Amino acid sequence: MLTRLLTLAALGLLWLLHWLPLPLIRKVGVLFGALTFYGARHRRHVAETNLRLCFPHLDEPARTDLLRRNFRAFAQALLDRSLLWWAGEKRLRRLIRVRGAEHLDDGSGRPTILLTPHFVGMDACGLRISMDRQTAVIYSNQSNPLINAVMRKGRARFHDTVLMSRQDGLRKAIKSLREGLPFFYAADMDFGAKDAVFVPFFGVSAATVVGLPRLVSLTQARVIPLVSHLTPDGYLAELLPAWTDFPSGDMDADLRRLNSFIEQEVLKMPDQYFWLHKRFKTRPPGESKVY
Q1: Which residue of 5, 133, 190, 240 pairs with 225 in a disulfide if CB–CB is 3.0 to 4.6 A?
Q2: Any long-range contacts for 57-66 (C-beta under 8 Å, 24+ apart)?
Q3: Number of other CB atoms surrounding residue 214 within 10 Å
Q4: How many angstroms separate the CA atoms of 288 and 291, rounded?
Q5: HSE-CB for 272 with a 13 A CA cutoff
Q6: Helix spans in the chain (H)
Q7: SS3 185
Q8: pTM, rounded to two decimals
Q9: Category of 107 on φ-ψ map: left (φ > 0), alpha (ψ -120 to 50) or beta
Q10: Residue 32 in contact with residue 78, Cβ under 8 Å?
Protein backbone atom coordinates (compact mmCIF):
# COMPACT_ATOMS: atom_id res chain seq x y z
CA MET A 1 0.00 0.00 0.00
CA LEU A 2 2.81 2.41 0.91
CA THR A 3 4.62 1.68 -2.38
CA ARG A 4 1.44 2.42 -4.33
CA LEU A 5 0.90 5.73 -2.50
CA LEU A 6 4.52 6.78 -3.07
CA THR A 7 4.24 5.86 -6.75
CA LEU A 8 1.03 7.86 -7.11
CA ALA A 9 2.67 10.84 -5.42
CA ALA A 10 5.70 10.65 -7.74
CA LEU A 11 3.48 10.37 -10.81
CA GLY A 12 1.41 13.29 -9.56
CA LEU A 13 4.51 15.47 -9.25
CA LEU A 14 5.63 14.39 -12.70
CA TRP A 15 2.22 15.28 -14.13
CA LEU A 16 2.44 18.74 -12.58
CA LEU A 17 5.79 19.30 -14.30
CA HIS A 18 4.28 19.08 -17.77
CA TRP A 19 2.56 22.43 -17.20
CA LEU A 20 5.92 24.15 -16.82
CA PRO A 21 8.00 25.56 -19.69
CA LEU A 22 10.83 23.31 -20.84
CA PRO A 23 13.66 25.59 -19.56
CA LEU A 24 12.24 25.37 -16.05
CA ILE A 25 11.81 21.59 -16.28
CA ARG A 26 15.43 21.33 -17.39
CA LYS A 27 16.58 23.41 -14.40
CA VAL A 28 14.72 21.04 -12.09
CA GLY A 29 16.50 18.25 -13.96
CA VAL A 30 19.89 19.76 -13.11
CA LEU A 31 19.00 19.62 -9.41
CA PHE A 32 17.56 16.12 -9.71
CA GLY A 33 20.70 14.96 -11.53
CA ALA A 34 22.91 16.26 -8.73
CA LEU A 35 20.78 14.50 -6.13
CA THR A 36 20.82 11.18 -7.96
CA PHE A 37 24.58 11.47 -8.53
CA TYR A 38 25.09 11.35 -4.77
CA GLY A 39 22.06 9.22 -3.86
CA ALA A 40 22.10 6.44 -6.48
CA ARG A 41 25.40 4.93 -5.38
CA HIS A 42 24.91 1.56 -7.07
CA ARG A 43 24.11 3.08 -10.46
CA ARG A 44 26.95 5.57 -10.07
CA HIS A 45 29.32 2.65 -9.50
CA VAL A 46 28.02 0.96 -12.68
CA ALA A 47 28.48 4.13 -14.74
CA GLU A 48 31.92 4.80 -13.23
CA THR A 49 32.99 1.28 -14.16
CA ASN A 50 31.70 1.63 -17.73
CA LEU A 51 33.49 4.93 -18.23
CA ARG A 52 36.72 3.57 -16.77
CA LEU A 53 36.60 0.59 -19.14
CA CYS A 54 35.57 2.53 -22.24
CA PHE A 55 37.67 5.67 -21.74
CA PRO A 56 40.89 4.49 -20.05
CA HIS A 57 42.73 7.48 -21.52
CA LEU A 58 40.70 9.93 -19.41
CA ASP A 59 42.05 10.85 -15.99
CA GLU A 60 39.80 10.61 -12.94
CA PRO A 61 38.71 14.30 -12.87
CA ALA A 62 37.70 14.12 -16.55
CA ARG A 63 35.72 10.91 -16.02
CA THR A 64 34.01 12.38 -12.95
CA ASP A 65 33.03 15.46 -14.94
CA LEU A 66 31.62 13.25 -17.72
CA LEU A 67 29.77 11.18 -15.13
CA ARG A 68 28.15 14.26 -13.58
CA ARG A 69 27.04 15.49 -17.00
CA ASN A 70 25.67 12.04 -17.77
CA PHE A 71 23.58 11.99 -14.58
CA ARG A 72 22.30 15.46 -15.41
CA ALA A 73 21.30 14.50 -18.95
CA PHE A 74 19.66 11.31 -17.71
CA ALA A 75 17.70 13.21 -15.04
CA GLN A 76 16.56 15.87 -17.49
CA ALA A 77 15.34 13.26 -19.96
CA LEU A 78 13.59 11.41 -17.14
CA LEU A 79 11.67 14.53 -16.07
CA ASP A 80 10.88 15.28 -19.70
CA ARG A 81 8.73 12.14 -19.59
CA SER A 82 6.12 14.44 -18.08
CA LEU A 83 5.86 16.05 -21.51
CA LEU A 84 6.01 12.77 -23.44
CA TRP A 85 3.15 11.30 -21.44
CA TRP A 86 0.86 14.30 -21.00
CA ALA A 87 1.78 17.30 -23.21
CA GLY A 88 -0.30 18.07 -26.29
CA GLU A 89 0.71 17.01 -29.78
CA LYS A 90 1.40 20.55 -31.03
CA ARG A 91 3.79 21.20 -28.18
CA LEU A 92 5.62 17.91 -28.71
CA ARG A 93 6.02 18.56 -32.43
CA ARG A 94 7.57 21.92 -31.59
CA LEU A 95 9.96 20.46 -29.00
CA ILE A 96 11.08 17.36 -30.90
CA ARG A 97 12.50 18.03 -34.34
CA VAL A 98 13.10 15.38 -37.00
CA ARG A 99 16.01 15.36 -39.43
CA GLY A 100 16.29 12.87 -42.28
CA ALA A 101 12.64 11.81 -42.45
CA GLU A 102 13.10 11.23 -46.18
CA HIS A 103 15.04 8.05 -45.36
CA LEU A 104 11.85 6.43 -44.07
CA ASP A 105 10.07 6.67 -47.41
CA ASP A 106 12.44 5.56 -50.14
CA GLY A 107 9.76 3.81 -52.16
CA SER A 108 11.41 0.40 -51.88
CA GLY A 109 8.48 -1.15 -50.04
CA ARG A 110 10.86 -3.06 -47.79
CA PRO A 111 10.20 -3.35 -44.03
CA THR A 112 12.08 -0.91 -41.83
CA ILE A 113 14.05 -1.52 -38.65
CA LEU A 114 14.86 1.68 -36.76
CA LEU A 115 18.16 1.01 -34.99
CA THR A 116 17.96 3.09 -31.80
CA PRO A 117 21.05 3.16 -29.56
CA HIS A 118 20.38 3.87 -25.91
CA PHE A 119 20.81 7.61 -25.69
CA VAL A 120 18.82 9.50 -23.05
CA GLY A 121 16.53 11.02 -25.70
CA MET A 122 15.52 7.67 -27.17
CA ASP A 123 11.96 7.66 -25.81
CA ALA A 124 11.28 11.26 -26.87
CA CYS A 125 12.50 10.73 -30.42
CA GLY A 126 10.74 7.39 -30.73
CA LEU A 127 7.47 9.01 -29.66
CA ARG A 128 7.96 11.78 -32.22
CA ILE A 129 8.36 9.27 -35.06
CA SER A 130 5.21 7.48 -33.88
CA MET A 131 3.24 10.72 -34.21
CA ASP A 132 3.45 10.47 -38.01
CA ARG A 133 2.86 6.75 -38.57
CA GLN A 134 2.01 3.54 -36.78
CA THR A 135 5.10 1.84 -35.38
CA ALA A 136 6.09 -1.17 -33.31
CA VAL A 137 8.43 -1.23 -30.33
CA ILE A 138 9.87 -3.71 -27.84
CA TYR A 139 9.87 -2.55 -24.22
CA SER A 140 11.04 -3.95 -20.89
CA ASN A 141 8.34 -4.62 -18.32
CA GLN A 142 8.78 -2.54 -15.16
CA SER A 143 8.55 -4.21 -11.76
CA ASN A 144 6.13 -1.50 -10.54
CA PRO A 145 2.74 -2.18 -12.23
CA LEU A 146 1.62 1.47 -11.98
CA ILE A 147 4.78 2.76 -13.64
CA ASN A 148 4.51 0.02 -16.23
CA ALA A 149 0.93 0.98 -17.09
CA VAL A 150 1.75 4.69 -17.41
CA MET A 151 4.76 3.97 -19.60
CA ARG A 152 2.76 1.70 -21.89
CA LYS A 153 0.00 4.26 -22.25
CA GLY A 154 2.51 7.05 -22.89
CA ARG A 155 4.35 5.11 -25.58
CA ALA A 156 1.13 4.21 -27.40
CA ARG A 157 -0.44 7.69 -27.41
CA PHE A 158 -0.32 8.12 -31.17
CA HIS A 159 -1.34 5.90 -34.08
CA ASP A 160 -2.00 2.86 -31.88
CA THR A 161 1.66 1.90 -31.44
CA VAL A 162 2.15 -1.88 -31.27
CA LEU A 163 3.89 -2.72 -27.99
CA MET A 164 5.61 -6.01 -27.29
CA SER A 165 7.65 -7.09 -24.31
CA ARG A 166 11.03 -8.75 -24.55
CA GLN A 167 9.38 -11.90 -23.22
CA ASP A 168 7.35 -12.12 -26.46
CA GLY A 169 10.42 -13.06 -28.48
CA LEU A 170 10.91 -12.08 -32.12
CA ARG A 171 7.73 -13.61 -33.53
CA LYS A 172 5.62 -10.49 -32.96
CA ALA A 173 8.43 -8.31 -34.27
CA ILE A 174 8.59 -10.29 -37.50
CA LYS A 175 4.81 -10.08 -37.85
CA SER A 176 4.87 -6.30 -37.39
CA LEU A 177 7.67 -5.88 -39.92
CA ARG A 178 5.83 -7.97 -42.49
CA GLU A 179 2.77 -5.79 -41.94
CA GLY A 180 4.88 -2.78 -42.89
CA LEU A 181 5.32 -1.18 -39.45
CA PRO A 182 8.65 0.53 -38.73
CA PHE A 183 10.12 -1.42 -35.83
CA PHE A 184 12.23 0.25 -33.13
CA TYR A 185 15.10 -2.01 -32.15
CA ALA A 186 17.84 -1.34 -29.59
CA ALA A 187 20.74 -3.77 -29.80
CA ASP A 188 23.18 -2.39 -27.24
CA MET A 189 22.18 -3.97 -23.94
CA ASP A 190 23.48 -7.04 -22.15
CA PHE A 191 20.79 -9.73 -21.92
CA GLY A 192 23.15 -12.59 -21.18
CA ALA A 193 25.18 -15.02 -23.26
CA LYS A 194 22.17 -16.68 -24.93
CA ASP A 195 21.75 -15.56 -28.55
CA ALA A 196 24.75 -13.26 -28.18
CA VAL A 197 28.32 -13.08 -29.47
CA PHE A 198 31.24 -11.45 -27.66
CA VAL A 199 32.55 -8.60 -29.79
CA PRO A 200 34.39 -5.43 -28.75
CA PHE A 201 32.61 -2.32 -27.56
CA PHE A 202 35.17 0.41 -26.93
CA GLY A 203 37.77 -2.33 -26.87
CA VAL A 204 36.00 -4.39 -24.20
CA SER A 205 34.36 -7.75 -24.99
CA ALA A 206 30.60 -7.23 -24.79
CA ALA A 207 27.80 -9.79 -25.15
CA THR A 208 26.04 -8.45 -28.25
CA VAL A 209 22.67 -9.86 -29.25
CA VAL A 210 22.43 -11.42 -32.71
CA GLY A 211 18.84 -10.28 -33.24
CA LEU A 212 19.50 -7.47 -35.73
CA PRO A 213 21.22 -9.50 -38.48
CA ARG A 214 18.77 -12.34 -37.93
CA LEU A 215 15.74 -10.05 -38.25
CA VAL A 216 17.08 -8.52 -41.43
CA SER A 217 17.78 -11.97 -42.90
CA LEU A 218 14.27 -13.17 -42.07
CA THR A 219 12.38 -10.08 -43.27
CA GLN A 220 14.69 -8.42 -45.82
CA ALA A 221 14.23 -5.21 -43.82
CA ARG A 222 16.23 -2.02 -44.20
CA VAL A 223 18.23 -0.85 -41.18
CA ILE A 224 17.82 2.90 -40.63
CA PRO A 225 19.69 4.31 -37.60
CA LEU A 226 17.74 6.68 -35.37
CA VAL A 227 20.09 8.74 -33.22
CA SER A 228 18.44 10.70 -30.41
CA HIS A 229 19.86 14.03 -29.27
CA LEU A 230 18.87 15.92 -26.14
CA THR A 231 19.19 19.60 -27.08
CA PRO A 232 18.82 22.82 -25.04
CA ASP A 233 15.45 23.51 -26.67
CA GLY A 234 14.10 19.95 -26.77
CA TYR A 235 15.23 16.97 -28.85
CA LEU A 236 16.47 16.10 -32.31
CA ALA A 237 15.51 12.77 -33.89
CA GLU A 238 18.18 12.15 -36.51
CA LEU A 239 17.41 9.48 -39.11
CA LEU A 240 20.44 8.31 -41.08
CA PRO A 241 20.61 6.59 -44.49
CA ALA A 242 19.79 2.89 -44.61
CA TRP A 243 22.74 0.55 -44.21
CA THR A 244 23.96 -1.24 -47.28
CA ASP A 245 25.41 -4.76 -47.49
CA PHE A 246 23.88 -5.77 -44.18
CA PRO A 247 23.86 -8.50 -43.11
CA SER A 248 27.05 -9.69 -44.78
CA GLY A 249 26.70 -13.35 -43.89
CA ASP A 250 29.46 -13.05 -41.31
CA MET A 251 27.80 -12.69 -37.90
CA ASP A 252 30.96 -11.58 -36.12
CA ALA A 253 31.64 -8.89 -38.73
CA ASP A 254 28.03 -7.68 -38.64
CA LEU A 255 28.04 -7.30 -34.87
CA ARG A 256 31.40 -5.54 -34.96
CA ARG A 257 29.91 -3.11 -37.47
CA LEU A 258 26.95 -2.56 -35.18
CA ASN A 259 29.09 -1.82 -32.12
CA SER A 260 31.48 0.33 -34.14
CA PHE A 261 28.58 2.47 -35.36
CA ILE A 262 27.29 2.96 -31.82
CA GLU A 263 30.80 3.86 -30.64
CA GLN A 264 31.05 6.57 -33.30
CA GLU A 265 27.75 8.10 -32.22
CA VAL A 266 28.64 7.87 -28.51
CA LEU A 267 31.87 9.77 -29.10
CA LYS A 268 29.82 12.68 -30.49
CA MET A 269 27.87 13.02 -27.21
CA PRO A 270 29.33 10.70 -24.54
CA ASP A 271 27.37 12.42 -21.76
CA GLN A 272 24.06 11.31 -23.32
CA TYR A 273 24.68 7.57 -23.55
CA PHE A 274 23.02 5.16 -21.10
CA TRP A 275 26.12 4.38 -19.04
CA LEU A 276 23.97 3.35 -16.06
CA HIS A 277 23.32 -0.03 -17.71
CA LYS A 278 25.58 -2.99 -16.92
CA ARG A 279 26.80 -3.30 -20.51
CA PHE A 280 29.61 -5.68 -19.52
CA LYS A 281 27.71 -7.80 -16.99
CA THR A 282 28.16 -11.00 -18.97
CA ARG A 283 31.81 -11.93 -19.31
CA PRO A 284 33.53 -14.38 -21.67
CA PRO A 285 34.48 -17.72 -20.09
CA GLY A 286 37.32 -17.28 -17.66
CA GLU A 287 36.96 -13.51 -17.24
CA SER A 288 36.05 -12.10 -13.83
CA LYS A 289 33.08 -9.82 -13.17
CA VAL A 290 33.65 -6.08 -13.52
CA TYR A 291 30.82 -4.60 -11.43
Answers
A1: 240
A2: 66/270, 66/271
A3: 16
A4: 9
A5: 22
A6: 2-17, 22-39, 41-54, 60-79, 81-86, 89-95, 122-130, 145-155, 171-178, 211-219, 251-268
A7: strand
A8: 0.94
A9: left
A10: yes
